[in-house]
Amino acid sequence: MDVQKYINKFTGKTAGSLLLILAAALSLWLFIAAGYRKKEVEEISKSLITINSYKISQVAAWREEHSREALRLSRHTVFGGVVAEEIAHPGSRRAELNTWLKDQLIQKQYVSLAFLSPKGAVVSATPGFKAGAAKYFKEIFAHAAREGTGLLTDLYLAADGRPRIAMIIPMSIKGHGGKPVTVLVINIDPEVTFYPIVKTAPQFLTSAETLLVRKEGKRILYLSPLDHAKDAALKFTRPVSDEQLPAAAAIRGVKGFFPGVDYRGVKVFSAIGPVPGSDWAVITKIDRAIILAPVKTREHLALLLILSGAGLIYFTVYSILRARRRAAEAALAEAAKKHEIHFKTTLDSMLEGCMVIGFDWTYIYLNETAARHGRNKQENLLGRTMLEMYPGIEDTPVFAHYKDCMEKRVPERFEESFTFPDGATLWFSFSVAPVPEGIFVLSLDITERRKTELELQSLNRDLTIKKQEMENFLYITTHDLRSPLVNIQGFTQNLVRYIQELRDGLAPEKLPAPVNETAAKLAGEKIPEALKYVLESSRKMDSLISSLLKVARLGRVEMKPETLDMNDLVKKITESVRFQGEKAGVSIKAGVLPPCRADRTAVSQIFANLLGNAIKYRDGARTLEISVTGEVKDARVRYTVADNGSGIAAKDLPRIWDLFFRGGTPGMEGEGIGLTVVKYMAEKNGGSVKAESVEGQGSVFCLDLPAAGVTK
Predict the structure, then answer these.
(1) DSSP conformational letter for 522
(2) 8-state DSSP, 203
(3) Nearest CA to 321 among 309, 341, 336?
(4) Which helix (H) or strand (E) holds 586?
(5) Residue 410: helix, strand or coil by DSSP?
(6) Residue-level pLDDT at 3
(7) Are 81 and 96 in contact (CB under 8 A)?
(8) Whose C-alpha in 170, 353, 435, 472 is 20 to 30 A from the C-alpha of 445?
C-alpha cells in the first residue's frame, strides 16, 4: 500500500477515529516520558553507587592509615625510655620530646600532641594541648593505658564542642610489650584532614552530598558536616525507625541504590553502604528535583512535538474531508497527489526512520531514512516481508520487541544492535507503537554514540585503575621508606646516648695516655660527627616523604568559596609571622585590601607562603621591607606582595613554580613545594599568580582572584 492509499483510508474515518489517533499519540508520549525517567534514574544510580563506593574506600583507607600509625608508634624503641628519664629527672629530656612533638604537629597537620603518664599527667605537650575532658575520651584513654594497645578513637565531641578524633598510643621502655610508662595522645581535627575526604564531590556531580553516620541507641547520629544544617556534625540525629531515611536504611544493613527522603524531608536518590571494620555508614545523595528537571524539559518538548504531529494529521484529514465535500473527484485527486508529494518529502527529510509494518510483517510504508537504516532501497522493501528480506531476523531481540508490540498492542522503546546479512552491525534507538495496520516504527542510528560510550567507559575504567595504582604506589612507597627511616633515627639517637656513656666511662687515669687520647678522639669527634651526618640525612629524607604526602593531598582538598575580608585575613597572617619578622628585622606594610571570593584556608596558605618566602630569601645587607596591596580590575582582584629581598635569578624565574625546585642560597631550608602549592591553590579558586623579579633588588608576586559577588 502506497502513502496515497494509506491516507485515503483515513479520509473515510469519523471523528471517533481521529480521537483514537490522538489517544495513540498520547500513549506514545507517556511511553517515551517513562523511558526518559527510567534511563535517567539508571544513570544516576550508577554514578551515585560509584561515588559512594569510592568514598567508602577513602574513609576506610584513612582509618587504616591512622590505625597503622598508632600501632607503629606504640612499637617505637626510643620514646618509652626517653619519657621514663624525663619523669625520673624532670627537664632532662623535655627539649628533645618537645622538638619531636612540634615536628609531628607541623608535618601532619595535627591539632595537638602530648606525652602523658598512664594516669593522665602531662609530661610534654605542644602549645594548646588540652587533656580530653569528654567521658568517651577518658574511658578510651584508661582502656589503652591498661591494655597497652595503640588505637584510633571514634569521632567524638571534645569539651569545646568541636569534633575530634584521637590516636592513643601506650609506650613502654622495651618499645613493644611490657607495662606502659607513657601514653602518646595525638588530637586530630577532622575538619582539616578527614571531613574534606568525605565531602569532596566529583566535578561532574557537584550537587551531590556525602554523609557519614553511625547508630546511637535508637537514633542515627550524623558524624560529618551537613550542607543544609549548620554545626551539625556529631550533634544532629534522626530516628532509626524512619524507613524512608537513607541513613536509617544504611544502619539497617541496606546497600546500594536507595530512593528516599533525606534529613530535610526532601526526596532524594542515594547510594548507601557500610565502612568495613567500623560501625559507620556512608550515604551519597542528590535531590530528585535536580536530576529530573532536565527530564521534564525533554518530556514537555516530546509532548509538544507529538501533539503538533497529531494536530497536523487531524488538520490534514479534516482538510481532505472538506475538500471531498466541496470539490469534484478530479480536484480531490489533484489535491491528494500534491499532498502525497509534500508528505513524502517531509518524511524523507527526517533524520529518523519511519516505517509502517503490517500484521504479516509486510513493509507497508517506509521513508528513505528507514531504507538506509535497513541498508537497502525503498523500492526493494515496499510490499515485501522483513522475514524475506532479512533471513533469521525472527531470532533477534529487535524482532522480539516488534512481536510484543504487535501482539500486546503496547508501545515499546528500546535500544538494540542488529547484524545485517552483509555482516555489518549497527545500533539503533527504536520507538514502536501499535497502529490499525500493524505497528509504526521510529528508528534512529546511534552507532557512533554507542562507540563513543564504550570508548568512554573503557577510558574511565583505565583512569580509575591508574589512579588507584598511583595512590597505592605512593602509600606503599612512603610507608616502606618511613619504616626503615624511623629505625635509623631511633638507633642513631641510641648511639648518641651510648657514645655519651662511653665518654663518661673513659676516665683519663684508667687507660694509658695514647689509648685514652685515641678513644677520646673517636668518642668525642669522629663518631659524633658521623652520627650528625646520619641524623641530618634522615631528617632530609623524612622531609621529602612529608612533601610527597602533601602534594598527594592537594587534589583531595575541596574549595569552599566565600566572601573574604582580606584586611582581617592578612592581618592575622602578619601576626603569625611577627616573631620571625621581628627577629630578622622585617617591616611588613599592608594597604586597604578589597574583598575577594575564594576558599579561606587556600588564600591563607597562599599569603603565608609568599610572606614566609620573602622573609626566608631576604638580603642580609639591608632591612627587608614587604608591602601588600590590592585593587579591583573588572571582575577580578589583584593582590601584590612586593619585597626588596635578594630577588630571583632570571634563569630561575620560569622554574620557581615547578615541584621541588629550590633556587636561592645553597643550603637554604625548605621543601621546594611552597610556590607549587601557591599556583595550584590560586588556579583551584579560579585565579592565577605570576612573579616578576630582579636579582639583587627584590621580587613582586601578583595574585588574581575573583572579586566579591563573582562566582566561578
Answers:
(1) I
(2) G
(3) 336
(4) strand 586-590
(5) coil
(6) 42
(7) no
(8) 435
Report CA Rg, the chain: 37
CA triple 126-127-128, angle to 5 deg: 115
Alpha helices in 109-207 (DSSP H): 135-147, 190-193, 195-199
89 secondary structure, DSSP code? S
| Conformational region of residue 221, where left means phi above 0, alpha means psi within -120 to 50, and beta covers everything else | beta
Q: What is the DSSP string of 350-382?
A: -SSEEEEEETTSBEEEE-HHHHHHTTS-HHHHT
Whole-angstrom Cα distance, residue 177 to residue 711? 57
Span 589-616, average pLDDT: 92
Would you say 548 and 474 are in contact if contact means Cβ atoms under 8 Å apart? yes
**DSSP codes joined into one string, 457-514:** HHHHHHHHHHHHHHHHHHHHHHHHHHHHHHHHHHHHHHHHHHHHHHHHH--GGGS-HH
Decide if pLDDT at 499 tops 80. no
- Helix (H), strand (E) at residue 262: none
Pairing of strands 688-694, 698-706: antiparallel
| Burial class of residue 116 in the structure, from the number of CB atoms within 10 Å of its CB (0-12 exposed, 13-18 middle, 19+ buried) | buried
Q: Which pLDDT value is given to residue 664?
A: 59
What b/e string do you get for 515-552 counting C-beta neighbours within 10 Å, with b at 16 or more? Answer: eeeeeeebbeeebeeeeeeebeebeebbbebbbbebbe
Burial-class residue 254 by CB neighbours within 10 Å (0-12, 13-18, 19+). Answer: middle
**Average pLDDT of 177-181?**
81
> Which string of DSSP letters, residue by residue, matches 212-247?
EEEEETTEEEE-S-BTTBTT-TTT-EEETT-TT-HH
Give the end-to-end CA distance of the chain in Å, rounded to a whole number: 60
| C-alpha cell, 116 | 602523658
For the segment 259-316, what is each residue's pLDDT rounded down to a tens digit?
A: 999 999 999 999 999 999 899 999 999 998 888 777 667 666 767 777 776 666 766 6
Side-by-side strand order, sheet with 237-239? 237-239, 219-222, 209-216, 280-287, 267-274, 256-261
CA dist., res. 676 & res. 693, Å (int): 17
Which SS3 state, helix, strand or coil, does residue 578 take? helix
Beta strand 156-157 with 698-706 is unpaired
Q: Which amino acid is at 355?
A: M
User: Which residue is listed with cell 603565608?
Assistant: 608
Question: Coil, helix or strand for 579?
Answer: helix
Q: In this model, does residue 2 exceed pLDDT 50?
A: no
- H helix runs in 125-245, sequence order: 135-147, 190-193, 195-199
- Residues 6 or more apart whose CB falls under 8 angstroms from that of 379 comprise none
Residues 6+ apart with CB under 8 A from 397: 416
Closest CA to 144 of 107, 182, 175: 182
Per-position b or e across 363-394, b if 16+ CB within 10 A of its CB: bbbbbbbbbebbebebeebeeeebeeebeebe
175 within 8 A of 75, measured Cβ to Cβ? yes
CA distances from 625 to 293, 536, 610 (A): 56, 33, 13
3-state secondary structure of 416: strand
Identify residue 145 by its one-letter amino acid code. A
* 700 phi, psi to nearest 5 deg: -130, 125
Distance CA 147, CA 130 (A): 23
Return the ∠ at Cα 526 (arms to 525 and 532), rounded to 5°: 85
Instruction: Supply the DSSP string of 30-70, one letter for each residue.
Output: HHHHHHHHHHHHHHHHHHHHHHHHHHHHHHHHHHHHHHHHH
Within 8 A by CB and 6+ apart from 264, the residues are: 228, 229
